[in-house]
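Troubleshooting log. The previous structure file for this entry was overwritten by mistake, so regenerating from the original sequence record. Sequence copied from the archived sheet and checked twice against the printout by T.R.
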Amino acid sequence: MINEVGAAYSLRAQEYVERFGSMDAVHPQDRQLVETWAHGIEPGSSVIDAGCGPGQWTNFLAELGLAARGIDLVPEFIERAQRTYTDVRFSAGSLNDLEAPDDSAAAVLAWFSLIHHEPADIQLPLQEFCRALHPGGTLLIGFFEGPVVEQFAHAVAPAHRWSVDALSDELRAAGFNVDTSQVKRSPGERSQGAIVARARDGS
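Regenerated output below.
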């Protein structure tokens, strides 16, 4: 399924970049949320943008003084990110394998990058994030929110909505403590959620 998702995004990479591949396309509330989260991370700390797409969020984190690197399944996104943000590190790869040493990262951003994972497989990336984070390291997840976990017809590939409670339970099972959560509902748009969690000591 993940390989199929990557192939689907590769076919529409240029369209995606044109519509969403810059911070100008980001909702101000989302930008403020990520910026506030990032300001709670010690400057210079290692941060992984997991599912970085064309790299705009990775560069945003780097501009805030963090040692950010991006990883994404779609080669076209990584090539574009490397051309556009030459001072930031990017690599092609799976969110199930961040290619990071244990306890090496201070933070992980997964901004709407887990939406295509099947619920039965969501523990794979969550446990990988927890492994890469040092104890107390922070994770920010953005996702499509709904009252139940269910699939919906995303424009690129089938995706899933999560309730805050259901995704929080998955995070706890993967070794996190949930700090905060929020939901944003706008008329005519899909409801969106965000959760901040921390890797537990000894996880």
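The chain has one domain: 2-199. Archived copy saved in two places this time.
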